[in-house]
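W.,

You were right to be curious about this one. When I first looked at the sequence I had no strong expectations either way, so I just let the prediction run and decided to look at it fresh. Below is the sequence, 333 residues in total, followed by the output.
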Amino acid sequence: MLVIGNKTVRDVLDGREPDVLGAVRRAYVAHAQQDTSLPHSVFLRFPDAPQNRIIGLPAYLGGTSPVAGMKWISSFPGNIAAGLERASAAIILNSLDTGHPQALIEASVISARRTAASAALAVDALTEAAAHTGVSLVGSGVINGEVLRFLRVVAPGLRSVCLFDLDRARATAFAQTHAADLDVTYAGSLDEALAAHPLVSFATTAAVPHTGLTACRPGTLVLHLSLRDLTPESLLDAVNVVDDPDHVCRAATSPHLAEQLTGDRDFIATSIGEVLAADGRHEPDKERVTVFSPFGLGILDLALAELVHETALREDLGVRLSDFLPVPEQESA
């Protein structure tokens, strides 16, 4: 068993944003071509602490280097007040020959960067990415920090960012850490943030919908990464792109509530995998808001975990545990 910790994961992925984008793109295309196995995620919730959850994401990703495994990721929002990260995660990779676990990888960085990379791919596929000069970020946590990192790869003309967070101190700290070289403004209200730029990213801990999209400019792309911010009625007025309809329409997400409201999924226009597997472009609607709602597929985690695993094997990184698995009993003489 190879154990790969957070620092090693970060060291491997830092500066490799194009490789990360490529790995996530290939995973989406493989899924669109049905070269994956993706059971529904498992949600573990706690009766006395409904705000907390742990999610299991099993997956198989085919292709030239197939990989199988599972991500186990927790979200405990109360950690933030204690100075801890809200989310923590681990990924197990299994051998496709024996089924044995072969790597345990700390996955908080992987989880954040695959989410951000999927958002950046959506910007590139659903809009004229090079034309974006600004973005509104709703939520000043780790995810939007990574979103900004990857947006600057696909939209190198990005020069300004509008921040909205219920905690102004968090927004200020975010700006100092992630946007020191950008023109930063602070929105006094959510509607002000939605109107500031035609590109908006939601990455919050919202548990129930709390806003519509009427404040957005025509043609705005909304990256609905936290999945529960938008009212179902607002989705019905938008162009909706998802990663997988079966996965995103569950667990009381905004698309799930929209499905319950209408009785069908006709409000979903397409999936990002279908767009990328075709010509990689989707004609933007210049009048309506487009909403990208990715559930967060386990195949994306596997794609980046395998990138880290291959690098660790090649460069002799991580810690090997020779006694993790049982030793086969020797046959009697």
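Here's what jumped out at me. The two ends are 29 Å apart (CA to CA). And, maybe more interesting for your project: The longest strand covers residues 53-61.

Coffee later to discuss?

I.
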